[in-house]
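Q: What would this chain look like folded?
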Amino acid sequence: MTSAAGLAAQFAELILAVLLAPMLTGWVNQCRAWLQNRSGPGVLQPYRMLLKLFRKEVVLAHNASPLFRIAPYVIFACLALSAAIVPTLSTDLPLNAAADAIALVGLLALARMFISLAGMDVGTAFGSLGARREMMVGFLAEPALLMVLFTASLISHSTSLATIVGTLAKNEFVIYPSLAFAGVAFTMVSLAENARIPVDNPATHLELTMIHEAMVLEYSGRHLAMIEWAASLKLFVYSCMGLALFVPFGIAEGGDSAGILLALPVLAAKLAVGGALLALIETLSAKMRIFRAPEFLGIAFLVAVLAMLVRVLLES
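A: My prediction, written as structure tokens:
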């Protein structure tokens, strides 16, 4: 692919991720409503909420520092760059060379650091509470996520996500026991990282249970819109990461426009199925106590380590 065409395809993939992320959140919420025998707010409700927030005036606390003001934009930029790094439509794009698993986890950690600092910046009790809980979840979830990515890298002998996806897509259909364990661990980590049930409930504002919402209570207007948009982007990134690692079929291997266009409906179908499965998991699960979250993520880490051991000892 030429440099101009590659940059155009990379930009298109980034814009697609930014525009589709709220729709994925709306689809998950709609599926949850259907499973609970409710009509639901509709798939486009996140777009209406973002539009309403962008129109509202920003209200800031008197002691808010510049970090509090720039944090929403930094968080959104980190998640947008993560969405561009993960191979969703093609494995032959300019940023694929930088699509290292460790760099991706670092970007996600940077976004977490800024939202936690912003939560503590104003000095409210809820903000500090949510920031501490967020750092606790990240401290336990990041090692498990790294173990999952390292397990996949042992198959392709590379930590590049594009190489991992290309290797898994080219291989014959084989059920890897290591990837089965890694898939379970990745699902558990995704639920925790995206503040979903059973670790957190994105639809509640109960001070004793909330994690993500506690950190953003002081935000309003366009700042809150950017944070909510970034949260949808994070769900999109984790969904695409899971699809790339465990369902890599349909992603274009070359950089031709025809392959990318064919990969688009495949991606939409996989996201629809994945969103429905996420809604099913949340419907069948109960919100656990916040003090049980370390046990939940500890099990995810042990399952991820087991996946790596299975790969090293049985599949090599």
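The CA atoms of residues 184 and 303 lie 7 Å apart.
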